[in-house]
Amino acid sequence: MHRLRITGLVQAAHRARRTLSRPLTGAERDTLVNRVQQTITQVDAILRLHDAKVSHLPTPSRRAYAFLAQLHPAKIGVGQHVEAAEPRGGPDTESVTFRGLRAFLDRVLDDTARLIHERQLKPAATHGVIRKTAHRLDQSIARDGLRPEHLKPQTRELVAWFRYFADEQAFARYAQAVERTQGVLAALPGREQTWRSPLLVHYRPTRTMYRWSVVARGTRIMLPTPMIAFDGSTVRELGRQMVSGERTKTQITAAMLAEPYQEVAAELESLVGDVEQTRGMTHDLAEVFDRVNRHYFQGAMARPRLMWSRTLTHRTFGHFNFVRNTVMISATLDRPDVPTLVIDHVMHHELLHKKLGLRASAGRHRAHTPEFRALERSFEGYEEADHFLKRMVR
Question: Phi and psi dihedrals of 73, rounded to 5?
Fold first, then answer.
């Protein structure tokens, strides 16, 4: 039987886990229980309708269902992980989005790139649109009493983009970067066989190093916003890889870790506020970091951004993002049956990445070097923790 996809199941599990990471009032607890019951009931009904089983769901949905099922009051006491607290008003965490904002940005950036290509851009007019949009977003956020954590992650990034380029000098830098990039990419050998002109270059919020697609009005090329800091040589190397399909990231990664890129990235983050939330249902990543930092790094490690994964992963239990200086720990480990030793081991592993960095070798970056492996085994209880994680994978 084909995989059965149920939209919203993974998001429901994520919302429930985030809700349980803080103290709840009785009313909030009852609301959560009702939501979980409704979700489980709806999923079971859909499975029966299609004569399917939970095993027919995609892996992320299957894990989400299992997580929600263990919260079902028929299986565990609804009072677990609950404390008294003052009522909390306002929308749920990471629940708010601005409908149509992403599509609007696409249109603005398409028009900007096309006008730059045709040498007809009127910077004041385009900048005026961006500035007015940023102002309206700020008005809406203030009117509804929204905090950064209320916004969905992608929405926070879009709001930060409009706030950043509402500054006239920043927009002038954006236009210069698009013009420079169009010129460099248009001169690449083999470009004509891959891309249709004009090249609609976007510097915008995106989670990938680059992405491009042929559209009705040309070829849309999406690059992360901080890449406006790239010089022509780096853009040329990036374009060469896009055209050839080659994935040699050494030069590009080095440029993303360099100060010009990081300065833009830091300013974008500062414009939407700090939304780091370290407390989970069972473990608090801030406490985990402090404990590991004190014991293995003499307290000298500067704290990176700490976050739980948005999905329940099965094989990847942690990740360190060098560009964003972020340690992400799998939400799968945020359970009472996962010993402190195990989550400390994963944090130690990721902090070693931060300490040792990447080593370039044969045009590629290596993270798990012999030095890394030796230091990893210095963790007290390494064998026990590693064995526990391997059992979870199986």
Answer: -60, -20
